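Handoff note, outgoing to incoming analyst
You'll be picking up this chain. Sequence as last confirmed:
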Amino acid sequence: MADVKERRRGATTISSKNQITIPAAELRAAGLEAGERLTARADGPGRVILERQHDVLADFAGALTGVYADHGLEALRNEWD
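Most recent structure output, in case you need it:
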């Protein structure tokens, strides 16, 4: 049988490229999924906080739907020419 590395539950190692692997159980507990953007900030010696990056544009996307009449924006853009 192959040797299995002994690891502490939830522990990880910093690679030579300064990368880490976060255990899947911890990601699930934090409600994070693959592909999400995170912001990292130091919070004292040996402590880094990862937070989901807030997408301000997504908060306002579609907020002005129905404000302009049909073809109203097109008319305004034609004034620029």
